[in-house]
Amino acid sequence: MANDKNCVEGNIEMANIHVRPQNPAVSQQEEAVGNVRNRFVSASLYVGDLERSVTNRQIYDLFQQIAPVVSVRVCRDNVTGSSLGYAYVNYNTVENASRALDQLNFTRLNGKPIRIMYSNRDPSIRKSGSTNIFIKNLGRAIDYKALYNVFSVFGHILSFKIVTDESGRSKGYGFLQFEQEEAAKKAIEKLNGMLINGKHVYVGPFMRKQERKQGNDIAKFNNVFIKNLSESVNDEDLKNYFGEYGTITSAVVMRDVDGKTKCFGFVNFENADDAANSVECLNGKKVDGKEWYVGKAQKKSERESELRGRFQKFRAANLYLKNLDESMDEVKLRELFSPYGTITSCKVMRDFCGQSKCSGFVSFSSQNEAARAVGEMNGKFVGRKPLYVAFAQGKEERRARLQVYFSRLQNTLGMQPALPTYPP
User: Rounded CA gap, 309 and 304, in Å?
Assistant: First the structure.
């Protein structure tokens, strides 16, 4: 591939030209805005998506219609001399370059629309991730002009690209860079999931190669689970909603023996990327007043593993209390432990007659909060009794702890203790 510097003709400098307002009446605020824009706007234009046979003369004749052209250069491979599919056009003022971009963008040369952007040689701007967005699930027929018209309403676009195959056909995804981060955020917020040319597009933050690699470590899936469906949704409705994202092999709303909907269902895609895209776009979608949950369909073993993980996390923040004062109730218990963090639940254990068993549980939103409560409250006198506060344990853990205790007792006393028994 040719080096960029080979694309500079003669001694023409392609750096940005800074233009300051000449009118002294221009306010400082307007001048500041102009200075920000001039960081990006250049008198040099990048002309991409060229048909390989386009020549310097053709580009010169086209751009000369707008204003006098300083230089034109089609970039070519150093070895083969073949066109690399892009060129640079230099004007002597930013105003001329701006008019050329507005009037000539998407003009067809040799049957193919060209794509014009301001030439920007500042790598810190080109490589900035905060203003870059990724677009996928684009209709194959959508072109640059349509894409530009949709996204330009949110702010000034520095560059954009629809990825194509060797024959020039769109692969259904692309990239776009705004001048300002706020414009990128608004475009993502407003356009993600929007119907463009009959397809719901995904619009999200651009991720660098390393980030995408980490994301690819997540197992792919073809089967999608949907719940919180309204009673009126049927199999055909699921096919219509999810068919926008790719080829579906099956779609079913689950029903009981009487044929009544269970308000959840499954959709299986032929392509895993289409399945992931549907989850991105449809999760949280409101249909018939119901907010859908859309996610990866899990096997029973996966669900059980996830539930065990949630339980372990919950138990790590769950405290067991004993030696409570008889007057202690849930309100007092919450007041007693609330200084240590956010309490998700608390319970004083009682017998059939409603009398306190002097024990209970307090759950916090995090393990750190629970640990702080154990450190501060264990052994503290509340009323007439010292509290016992410890992390709650499951039955198996308690049994293992008691076995260790009785084993040590046996070694100490030289006797065979009877292990406690548990109901089946």
Answer: 9
